[in-house]
What does this fold into?
Amino acid sequence: MTRYEEIAQRIQKDFQSQLKSNQIVIQIGSATCEKAAGSDLVREEFEKLVKATGRQDIRLKQTGCTGRCSREPIVGVFFPGQFPFKYEKVTVAKVQQIFEQHILGGKPVLNLILDKKTTKYYSHIVTLYPSNAPGFAEDKKWEDILVERLKAKHVDPETTRVFVGGNVNISNKVQGKQGVGMMIFPEKTLYHFASEAELDQIIQAHFVENKTCPELFAQIDSMTERFFSVYGDVAFFNKQTRLTLRNSGIIDPENMDEYIFNHGYEGLAKALAKNEPNFVIEEVLKSGLRGRGGAGYPTGRKWKDATTSPDPIKYTVCNADEGDPGAFMDRSALEGDPFSVIEGMTIAAFAVGAHQGYMYIRAEYPLAIERCEKAIAKARAAGFLGKNILGSGFDYDIEIRLGAGAFVCGEETALMRSIEGRRGQPRIRPPYPTQGGLWGHPTVINNVETLANVPVIMVYGADFFARIGTEKSKGTKVFALAGKINNTGLVEVPMGTTLREIIFDIGGGIPGGRSLKGIQTGGPSGGTIPASAVDTPVDYDSLTQAGSIMGSGGMIILDDSDCMVATAKFFLEFTQDESCGKCVPCREGTLRMLEILTRITDGHGSLEDITKLERLGKLIQKTSLCGLGQTAPNPVLSVLKNFRAEFLEHITEKHCPTQRCPKLVRYEIDEEKCTGCTLCARRCPVPCISGTARKPHVIDQERCIKCGECFTVCKFDAVKKL
Amino acid sequence: MITETKNTLPKEICDFIDVCLTREHPESYLIAVLHKLQQQFGYLTREHMDEVAQRLHVPASFVSGVATFYHFFRLQPRGKFSISVCLGTACFVKGADKILDAFRAELGVDLAETTKDGLFSLDCTRCLGVCGLAPVVTINDKVYSQVTPQQVPDLINRAKADLETTETKV
Ligand SMILES: Cc1cc2nc3c(=O)[nH]c(=O)nc-3n(C[C@H](O)[C@H](O)[C@H](O)COP(=O)(O)O)c2cc1C
Ligand code: SF4
Ligand code: SF4
Ligand code: SF4
Ligand code: FES
It folds into this structure.
């Protein structure tokens, strides 16, 4: 038995006995977002209550975040052999209710359930996961068929509830056949059927004869099984395919044994056992994995590039700078499952022959830093880092380096300077990092999410990975959904999923009865896709065609109250502020563009400004030294292209249709409503409101400075904002 | 020019620098040292930076070059409560500008300024990764999510109240 097998076997035993013990587990989210929502208070309250009962069979457990931001804090209550209940937006008062009624009384508090799908207490919940293999799932309405068959067999619909999930397409594809996956709670039995006859067979066995039907068991991998057996009934989750986020919200991120129990370090052990770095590179090449940090460079090729150098000193770097303001995939991954990133780094190091690695984490993420520090120390103590890893003779260690609030340090050459302790200014490439990187040695830099995919590829094989996604974009992508969307949070979907599915099926659409206006992806380097292109599939090429980029995964949803010119200006202010100042086109060019945009939003724009913006933008793109400058004009150019009419309205009509640009709104007094109370005239700072008492007042538009005071003070709703 | 090393750095930081000197590329730990200093003192002083330069065997200009390059480092003292309004994209579209205006009005200071009583300083940050619960404000280490302009006076008062309770405890 290898050293890894010994460790894994011991952990299997420990966990199996833990699962068998009759413990009640209370699982509490612990991540920056969860804490901001109040999860620490929730935890303290549970601790107090458990202590007061003196019971030993109730265990509190922490996890990272599941990615369901808008419903946090989330608490899971798991009784052995029962349906896994998840509660949303838990407060201290709700903790007391949950504890009394559910933990002590055994009765779930149904009105607090996550996503409120369960309004009753069902004895069985059946979730269907139609495969996305074309032609099969759509052929029939399996939900209706199942409900009808259950009825025919006299299964009480009052006690058994059917849900349709999305595609857990892993389960079907692992098995290599088309069909429908079906999980039955609370037993968590997973079936897979490919015809109505097979479905009948399952119903007969499971519901009528109270047995199981082993010949139709789905051979789902335990990685997916764990996630879906906890969250499978929640629509937000079961429409996703969780590879990189497989452990988030499931395991305790500080518990390495639990990571190992979920296939952790199996990938590294496999790579080391083969003892053939080339094998690893070939697998990663074959998987089709491309960098998730923005540029989408094939990961296997990058690794191969590094091996061509004879230099014996090589480095690997994890880019955890997550510079896109409005993105949080990497933070969540590091807080919720740091070991998978560390394992990915170790596999990469083995493949390229590096012995030292650096995790470059932005200082704004203190909890992620803390979790990674702990994880590295634990991995080292257990022999997964350091000298002679798992007895293989391979040495590798990781140090953490902190960013210090400079967006440009996400750019790879700047990042390396920053690791070296210097000012993070980019330099010209070549040499590329894989040839001359840190201190001149070959260096492989990969994004957090890229690395988190690597263990999956090693465990399940390149073919498995390559089956997910589209022809040129393999695997899944995590998006950080924020802005004007009902379900803000993390969404991991197979490449090729449409924006519509992400925004409406998973994201739950736009709140407040408003309508979708645009989808911003790629942050300050990206662009805004108009609502009309909502059927665009997310993959590297399609998003570029739609006028934006894949970027690192930030996805900000804009509704009809958002001004596109203001949004473009926001990004330019950001890049202007973050430009390192080394080269003129970026430093001066973005400043000029910003001046023009400010002129436009102040109401002094002219039509020439549009040509000027376009010309300047193209010049900056072409002549800037690094990616920051080369992409800085993108948000503006994409708005000019996709939302040109709105831009023109700002210039020719001097009007902002969303009233978001304060200088481009008009205040008018409604003659009918105005009582002539004179308040506005007295308050106007200019003053430019005239009228006599008890007669309607008038605003002199020429002199009005748009301060909005009249609008605010009028008690009769007579001042209109247009 | 040889200047005498003034001993103004706390011992832990000197010890940390000594450890760094035993490793490869000691100067690469400069940013880590500055983080530790700022964590402890809230900002970086001239004397501290000069002493770091001497102990780490790098020119003083190198240290100040790094300290001024990175936005995270502050060269001015901050208030007891450091208020930071997130101006990342998600917070921006959820109206972070209005939150910032509310703090400005309530405290009577602008960005990067401190109130006269030395209690509050106002800053902005670019995303804390809590975008799903935007808009976000931090006061010292505590993160507040889904903040409304109406809550701003209350947040300030709560901070003041915390101060009073800790001061009476002492
Ligand atoms: C201005 C700028 C900022 C960047 N920020 C990040 C970042 O925060 N995180 C990241 O992983 N990549 C970032 N990148 C991309 C990196 O330079 C690099 O391509 C990436 O880390 C490579 O990893 P990958 O191949 O795994 O994607 C940025 C690039 C530029 C030009
Ligand atoms: S493009 Fe901008 S950020 Fe990049 S090197 Fe030039 S000035 Fe610096
Ligand atoms: S405050 Fe309103 S009602 Fe009074 S004068 Fe002005 S517009 Fe008319
Ligand atoms: S917006 Fe301000 S300046 Fe204009 S009329 Fe109203 S109060 Fe006067
Ligand atoms: S944009 Fe404010 S937390 Fe991300």
The first strand of chain B starts at residue 81 and ends at 86.
